[in-house]
Write a structure and sequence with these properties.
404 residues, alpha/beta, 6-stranded parallel β-sheet, 15% strand, globular
Length: 404
């Protein structure tokens, strides 16, 4: 691929649009990317191509491609769907297949940037492909810590391969500096997931109850639980501890809405247990993929969020709803005052739920930003695009000065 540094320079002079490709593979990353994509598509400086694969194309994960299509974004390429089996061997093959498919898409589209978010194993392999294609990578939400999941290592690996960073907090930015990432490539933007609080139409309590077939008279609990992939406790035992807590007061007297587990190894075991539980408990509902509008409606009207999803730390505090954060999957992330941590044991989970319900809904400061991340990320990309491609690709290691 020829050096296109001069073309980059001409873009700022000739007002030629900067070509950005963005990759999404799960409803979780799309929920955050959505507002960045909107900001990019509304800017006169950018053209946007969306690369979609993974859980978005899997029926078992709710087939969330329909939500992306409804948002009206141009989908430039469909990548491999998430596998039916959630074994380590199949995950490795899926990551490789995604990298090969993305390589072909990059060869055809020839973007100026690839935008990726987070920490998924199926994101790391495509980023390697982008580096080999000499396509600069913009990494969102790097520098976070999630010590209880294999995602932690994938996130840091992506950061080292990336050419610019849009972390959510100053602490995350400091970690990137400690990894040797140059200061002039780090732009603290906040979490793009919070942009939706301003932009998603509010769903009333009545609308939520009609959509999810709830009676609306009891306490409402939202449960999102994923495999804790570095735990000695297997996923079946992890979800058994959660369900055991939900069988006891006060949770057993509430209405409970489950959302789907992700495609990490062990996710199928969790979903099978949830399906059996929902089948025998009339106070429960399961929606594998709610879509962001309905999910935000659930957070807006729930009395407590239970599980180990990052949304319990990222978005839930902005709704004032308390979070019961189970286990170590999110260990290391900054927490708002509304987050209650507990071990993955039924008794501790039950105690934490009781504490959360007693606490009640109460507005707190959210450490992840103010809801304008999409605009800041767009501005950061425009700023970095003033540099030549050769300059952007030649990233130097920048050790911290003594005492920093």
């Amino acid at each position: 691929m020829p050096n296109r540094g001069s073309v980059w320079h001409q873009k700022s002079v000739m007002s030629t649009k900067i070509k950005v490709s963005a990759l999404t593979t799960t409803r979780a990353d799309y929920g955050l990317l959505r507002w960045v994509l909107r900001a990019l598509s509304e800017s006169s400086c950018f053209s946007l191509d969306l690369l979609v694969g993974g859980a978005h194309l899997a029926d078992a994960q709710g087939h969330s491609l329909a939500e992306i299509e409804a948002d009206g974004f141009d989908i430039a390429a469909l990548l491999p769907a998430a596998p039916d089996q959630d074994t380590a061997a199949r995950a490795v093959a899926f990551a490789a297949e995604t990298a090969v498919a993305l390589s072909a898409a990059l060869d055809r589209i020839r973007p100026d940037w690839l935008v990726v978010l987070g920490d998924r194993f199926e994101i790391l392999a495509p980023v390697q492909a982008a580096v080999l294609h000499r396509v600069p990578v913009c990494h969102l939400c790097g520098g976070d810590i999630t010590e209880g999941a294999i995602d932690d290592g994938f996130r840091h690996a992506i950061s080292k391969l990336a050419h610019m960073h849009c972390p959510t907090t100053q602490l995350a930015a400091q970690r990137l500096r400690a990894m040797g990432e140059p200061e002039d490539r780090i732009f603290v933007t906040g979490s793009p997931g919070l942009d939706g609080l301003r932009l998603v139409p509010e769903i009333t309590h009545g609308e939520l109850c009609r959509e999810l077939a709830l009676d609306g008279k009891s306490k409402l609990i939202c449960v999102t639980f994923h495999p804790e992939t570095l735990s000695e406790q297997n996923p079946a035992d992890q979800i058994a501890a959660v369900l055991g807590a939900l069988d006891e007061p006060p949770a057993c007297n509430a209405e409970i809405v489950f959302t789907g587990a992700n495609i990490d190894p062990g996710g199928q075991a969790i979903m099978q247990a949830i399906e059996r539980y929902v089948g025998s408990h009339g106070n429960t509902r399961l929606r594998r993929s709610l879509g962001q509008s309905m999910y935000f409606g659930l957070l807006r009207h729930a009395d407590v969020v239970v599980g180990n999803s990052s949304s319990g730390l990222y978005e839930a505090p902005s709704f004032g709803v308390p979070t019961v954060n189970i286990g170590d999957r999110q260990k290391g992330r900054i927490r708002a005052e509304s987050v209650i941590d507990c071990a993955c044991q039924s008794r501790e989970i039950g105690t934490a739920i009781q504490k959360a319900l007693l606490r009640g809904r109460r507005m707190v400061a959210n450490p992840y930003g103010d809801g304008f991340a999409g605009r800041r990320i767009t501005e950061a990309l425009q700023h970095m695009s003033r540099r030549t491609r050769s300059d952007v690709l030649r990233k130097t290691f920048s050790p911290l000065a003594p005492g920093r």
